[in-house]
Specification:
The protein is mainly beta. The protein is built from no helices and eleven strands. The radius of gyration is 13 Å and the shape is globular.
């Protein structure tokens, strides 16, 4: 089992920044990749959108086109923590942000590729 706990969400004005954290515990040695997804207002949980992903080794990253150049994913292996630095935030970034852990050989871009999920943290960007 892997437990994931997100933190760092909140209310920010458009153009501002937030840094989300995802702390992993349990069988972290089995994790191969971590991802961030988001669920926009009015969307079902099954419609979560891939935001960014990183191999646990930190070698490879992947981003959705909508966040490229604004968001950066990183990890601190000593702390078993993955971060999502979000800059130049827009109202359309408003969502519940979830982190997820995958066991495999690549960064899954879809929800089905992830085995464990956190509870989510709310990010609200005001205009």
């Amino acid at each position: 089992q892997v437990q994931l706990v997100e933190s760092g969400g909140g209310l920010v004005q458009a153009g501002g920044s937030l840094r989300l954290s995802c702390a992993a515990s349990g069988r972290t040695f089995s994790i191969s990749a971590m991802g961030w997804f988001r669920q926009a207002p009015g969307k079902e949980r099954e419609e979560r959108e891939f935001v960014a992903g990183i191999m646990w080794s930190g070698v490879n990253t992947s981003y959705a086109d909508s966040v490229k150049g604004r968001f950066a994913i990183s990890r601190d292996s000593a702390k078993n923590t993955v971060y999502l630095q979000m800059n130049s935030l827009k109202p359309e970034d408003t969502a519940i942000y979830y982190c997820a852990a995958a066991f495999g050989f690549h960064i899954p871009l879809g929800e089905a590729g992830y085995d464990y999920w956190g509870q989510g943290t709310q990010v609200t960007v005001s205009s």
